[in-house]
Known about the structure:
- There is one protein chain.
- The protein is of the alpha+beta class.
- Helices cover about 50% and strands about 20% of the residues.
- The chain has 7 helices and 7 strands.
- Helix 1 packs antiparallel against helix 2, helix 3 (about 85-95) crosses helix 5 and helix 5 (about 120-140) runs antiparallel to helix 7 (about 190-200).
- The protein starts with 6 loop residues before the first helix and ends in a 5-residue tail after the last strand.
- Magnesium ion (MG) binds near residues 131, 134, 135 and 192.
- This is histidine kinase.
Amino acid sequence: ELRTLRGNEKFSATGRVARTIAHEIRNPLTNINLAAAHLAKDVELRQHKDMLQIIQSSSERINQMITDLLDSTRFQELDFSKVNIDTLIDEALDNAQNSLQLKQINVIRDYGEHVCAIWADKEKLKIALLNIIINAIDAMEAGRGELILKTGTVNHRCAISVTDNGAGMEEEALNKLFDPYFTTKTQGIGLGLTNTRNIILNHKGDISVVSKPGVGTTFHLVLDFAKD
Ligand code: ADP
Ligand code: MG
């Protein structure tokens, strides 16, 4: 019997295939990353250290692209808990560590006096932060980059900002920034910020961006505190 898949059926079939393929790609990718991290411990030569860092940073990128692709094909069920925002930013920075080091980026953590505990899906929010951080790294020049991560309180909510001194954006790019598949990169997919925005909106949070060509870009996030 011939049957045509429609609407949700078609969507979920595609989603299922995508998830299986993603899983199959992730396993060997994890092995590559772990092996490179393991080798990096014993290697002495600067040049070899750099090469291993390129392997690690590249596999982190592929992993992020897979996450972006997957997250755009499935409904995002959120798993809420109380999350310390400073710790979460530290973890996101940790995931981008190799890319940050490769470009010798100066990371400045300007965390608020009172730590924000927010009500969030920890893993999803980390992905959102990581997307913003990776974009910032891409926009900055090697050896001259400065990344500032700031947390604080605004109107009884938690405010987070991520500032880079990278290329910045023209009005035209700023208008399309969150659109699916908008990218200016040769190896970009253009789904990172689409997913990031969805994640923040699913948290009933706010996301906005201020940018100036040649000066840099700041992403502002505002999220609700955790209820006690
Ligand atoms: P991708 O990173 O795959 O290109 P994104 O959705 O993450 O997709 O970003 C879309 C585009 O927005 C980028 O290609 C880039 O042109 C622009 N962009 C995002 N963040 C920044 C930033 N911090 N500085 C300059 N441009 C940015
Ligand atoms: Mg991106």
